[in-house]
Amino acid sequence: MIVTGLDYWGHTLNNMPLNSYNTIYDYLAKYILPYLKDVEAEYRVFYSLAQNDSRKLEIAKNAIKHNKFTLSVLDKNKQDLLLELQHVSRPIKCAFFVQSILY
């Protein structure tokens, strides 16, 4: 293109656009900018939903971690109570056995 004397877009160096800048500006203002605003609005809605979904997912994961921790603590407490009951139940069983023999 340079060899033939054309610019980047393939126009001659003395090319004069047929449209005035006002025509181009009006076209942009009337058709392109409203379209771009709609695209940006849809992007913002999509982004906010994605952000909310990711936040919801993060909250759900944290809730699951918290529930697992709570269940592990409750399970440990249950095991401790079971061991304590087993430890206490032997003397009670022995006491009932002795009492049943004596009476």
What is the average of the pLDDT values? 78
- Helix tally equals 1
The strand count comes to 0
Output the helix-strand order.
H
Helical proportion, percent range: over 70%
Span between N and C termini?
119 Å
What are the low-pLDDT stretches, counting only 5+ consecutive residues below 50?
A: none
Q: Tell me what portion of residues adopts beta-strand conformation.
A: under 5%
What's the main sheet like? Answer: none
**Which class of secondary structure composition applies to the elements?**
mainly alpha
User: Given the C-alpha coordinates, what overall shape results?
Assistant: rod-shaped
Explain what the structure shows.
By secondary structure, the protein is mainly α. Helices cover 80% and strands 0% of the residues. The chain has one helix and no strands. The longest helix is centred in the middle third of the chain and has 82 residues, at 21-102. The model has no long low-confidence stretch (mean pLDDT 78).
Write a short abstract of this structure.
This protein has one helix and no strands. It is mainly alpha-helical.
Chain-wise SSE layout:
Layout (H helix, E strand, L loop, with lengths): L20 H82 L1
List keywords for this structure.
about 100 residues, mainly alpha, 1 helix, rod-shaped
